[in-house]
Amino acid sequence: MRNLYLAGITAILLSVAAAAAAGAASYTADTEQSRLEFVGVQAGAEFKGVFHKFTANVDFAPDALAGSRIDVQIDMNSVDSKDKDRDTTIRSKDIFDVAHNPTAHYVTKTIAKTATGFSAVGSLTLHGVTKDVPIDFQFVPAAAGAKLTGSAKLNRLDFGVGQGDWKSTENVGDAVKINFSLVLKPKT
Amino acid sequence: MPNQNPPTRYSAVAQGFHWLIAALIVVQFTLGWTAQFLPIGARKLARLDWHKSFGMTILTLAALRLLWRLFNRPPELPPGMTKFERQAARATHVLFYVFLFVMPLTGWMMSSAKNYSVSWFHQFTWPNLIGPNEQAFNLLKSTHDTLSWLLFAVAILHILAALKHHFWNKDDVLKRMLPFTKSEKRS
Predict the structure, then answer these.
(1) Has residue B182 got a pLDDT over 90?
(2) Record: contact A89-B125, CB cut-off 8 A
(3) What is the pTM assigned to this prediction?
């Protein structure tokens, strides 16, 4: 038993040491200043919405991508498309079904450098369905932390978002754009 | 060059504007009226989507029609109409022009206030006139609804007046707006 504890503690210490050696700094997003936005197409016209509540934990260093990771938890109830009727509809059973799937989760698996910034592939769990979604982002260190901005594209029907009448892409497009801007503060 | 003498019939362009817009208004009434009974959902969204596309079509046609009207004289009212009848006819026609602009504009603003940008048959998106605002939406919606009933009333008056001219006065007021007919020469 004691050996197991020791092994566990050693493992934790080793991984912390590895992260430190790799140089990935740990941050959390200041949600007050951060923004998580989606852009959908409805009745032929784009509309924007945001999620007010989400948490983001980021381990990142441009020169230690193997040890870097972006992890975001989204409170699906906090959806706001500047129209109460639409928000109620989006939360309902046929769309987000927040009663059964109150949170969405995104966590990166691999991060790579690109000509303009970084790209990552991560798994997104949305509406109870998990699928890989690539993102592109920029990481800009700031005096007290960093700023992480980027975008992604996904197809809502891949995640079963839109059942019944909402399955049709005539009224609501399948493609959804995601834009994010995270203000990162070092973890204390 | 504008004609020196007023024409005796409405031109093909004037008739085209009149009947096309009249038909679209009937479509708009049907779509708008039936949409309000639908529950919030995909069918309502689709019906209002058509309503908005047709509405923006009417707004565009109204702008073209007004522009055209500024440079083209309509036929004169038949002789023998009383001063009151002339004023009523004039007021009705002016009101129609007001409705042709105010109805689509309040509808467009409603959509903007509710953060539903207006598409034109899914070909392009019109810019939002105002920002999202629930109070403004409610005010605009009641204005749009009330005006639609006023428009309905004015349209009934207009139709009854045209029929009265045709069957009672037996003048060419109706015929000169009808394609494929000839107006009798007035003596």
Answers:
(1) no
(2) no
(3) 0.85
Domain residue limits, chain B: 12-177
B chain contacts of residue A46, beta-carbon cutoff 8 Å: 117, 125
Say yes or no for a CB contact (<8 Å) between A165 and B40: no
Helix, coil or strand: residue A179: strand
| pLDDT tens string A90-114 | 999 999 999 999 999 999 999 999 9
Q: How far is B117 from chain A (nearest CA, A)?
A: 6
Q: How far is B56 from chain A (nearest CA, A)?
A: 14
Can you tell me which residue has the tokens 């979604």? A133
The yes-or-no verdict on residue A21 having pLDDT over 50 is no
What residue in A sits closest to B110 (Cα-Cα)? A83
In whole angstroms, give the CA distance from residue A33 to residue A146.
Answer: 12
The chain-wide mean pLDDT, for chain A, equals 91
Fold of A23-186: Lipocalin (2.40.128)
* Distance between first and last Cα of chain A: 32
Question: Chain A closest CA to B97's CA: distance in Å?
Answer: 28
Q: Which CATH architecture has domain B12-177?
A: Up-down Bundle (1.20)
B36 vs A: CB within 8 A? no
